[in-house]
Write a structure and sequence with these properties.
This protein has 134 residues and is of the alpha+beta class. The chain has a single domain, classed as Thiol Ester Dehydrase, Chain A, CATH 3.10.129. Strand 7 and strand 8 form a beta hairpin. The radius of gyration is 15 Å and the shape is globular.
Length: 134
């Protein structure tokens, strides 16, 4: 399930994404995008910061045949202020707070916020575990 439509900005420390809420989305109930959808959108947004390192070699060339798996290992803080309605687009910003890499996996902490039409919907501090599938 893909919860990001476009990446507007991506560096090694921050990312900005956009996602349109459609009626057939698994996280839509009563014409609103549920809290769990906001969490999944944030996690997928955040994972792109660290995830990009799995797909590039030392010379920033794209590696072929790479598959990565990741999951939320913890949510330290989370606030939901409002839920976006079907048909609206949300913009999610994330910043890398900390990162620990091994040869096998990466654990990181991200600070993220989600907006709809400049209205703050969601804030969270999320821990992610990401590794290459072998």
């Amino acid at each position: 399930m893909l919860m990001v439509d476009s990446i507007l900005e991506l560096t090694n420390e921050k990312v900005k994404t956009v996602f349109e809420i459609k009626a057939d989305n698994v996280f839509v109930a009563d014409d609103a995008f549920a809290e769990v959808g906001l969490i999944e959108n944030a996690a997928q947004t955040c994972s792109s910061i660290v995830g990009q390192s799995f797909f590039l070699d030392e010379e920033d060339q794209v590696k072929d045949g790479i598959e990565v798996i990741g999951f939320i290992s913890g949510i330290k803080k989370m606030k939901v202020f409002a839920l976006p309605q079907v048909g609206s687009s949300i913009t999610t910003n994330a910043v890398l707070h900390s990162r620990f890499d091994t040869d096998e996996y990466c654990i990181c902490t991200m600070i993220c916020s989600t907006y709809c039409n400049d209205i703050l919907l969601f804030e969270a501090e999320i821990n992610l575990f990401i590794q290459e599938k072998r």
